[in-house]
Every structure is written in C-alpha cells, then in structure tokens.
Design brief:
Shape: elongated
Largest sheet: 2 strands, antiparallel
Radius of gyration: 32 Å
Helix content: 40-55%
Strand order of the largest sheet: 1-2
Number of strands: 2
Strand content: 5-15%
C-alpha cells in the first residue's frame, strides 16, 4: 500500500510569479484592515506633504477651524462657532459641573492621608529610636 498523487506546495505559480499559499486564507476582515492601514498611511503622507487628498480633507478642515478659533480668541473678531470657546475662557467655573464633587473627594483623601502620616510619624521615639 502506497499512495501517489499531487501535493500542493507552499507556493502558487500564476502568470510568471510565485504567490504564497497563505494568500488564499485571507478573510474580508484582513482586506479591510489592510485597506484601512493603507488609507491611514496615505493620509499621513498627504498631511505631511501639505498635499490635499480626499482622506486628508477632514483633518485639514479641523486644523483650519482650530486656527480660525485661535484668531478669534486673540482678536476682537468673532464667529458663532467660536462663541463657546470665548464663553469658556471668560468663565471656566460655569462649565465645571463635576468639579465640586471631585474636589470634596480629593480633600477627604488628603485629610485621611495627612492623619495617617501624622500617626505614623509620632511613634514615641526620637531620631534613631532613643
């Protein structure tokens, strides 16, 4: 009893090029991941080169808006979109909703740690335990 037949090698020959057999095991998620990585690289390259491409347009618009708000904050010129930033800088306490609760918790923790430190420091001994 012996067996004979074709065995599939680890490479595939197609139109003069050898392709690894692992290419056949790719899923749709693998292709989507590769495309997302390629688009991210293209976006980074176009942003670095200051060359507008379709994937880079949202980043360019966001950067331009940030610059426009910065100009509005430094000058007296105002646009409706920059009013929220101006209001926050004028009165930051008005936007602090959770800050009082967090501040009281921080104060309680600091009081507890201070009382623990004072108890551990005073052990009835002086310097070098005498």
């Amino acid at each position: 009893p012996f067996f004979y037949g074709l065995s599939i090698s680890s490479s595939i020959y197609d139109n003069g090029s050898l392709i690894d057999a692992k290419v056949l095991d790719l899923t749709d998620d693998d292709f989507a991941g590769m495309m997302a990585e390629g688009i991210a690289n293209l976006t980074a390259l176009s942003l670095g080169a200051s060359y507008p491409t379709l994937p880079a347009v949202p980043h360019l618009i966001t950067a331009a808006f940030k610059n426009l708000v910065g100009v509005c904050l430094e000058t007296e010129y105002s646009i409706p979109a920059a009013e929220a930033a101006k209001a926050y800088l004028a009165n930051p306490e008005a936007f602090a909703v959770a800050a009082p609760a967090a501040a009281t918790k921080a104060e309680e923790k600091s009081e507890k740690s201070e009382s623990e430190n004072s108890e551990s420091e005073d052990m009835g001994m002086g310097l070098f335990g005498f």
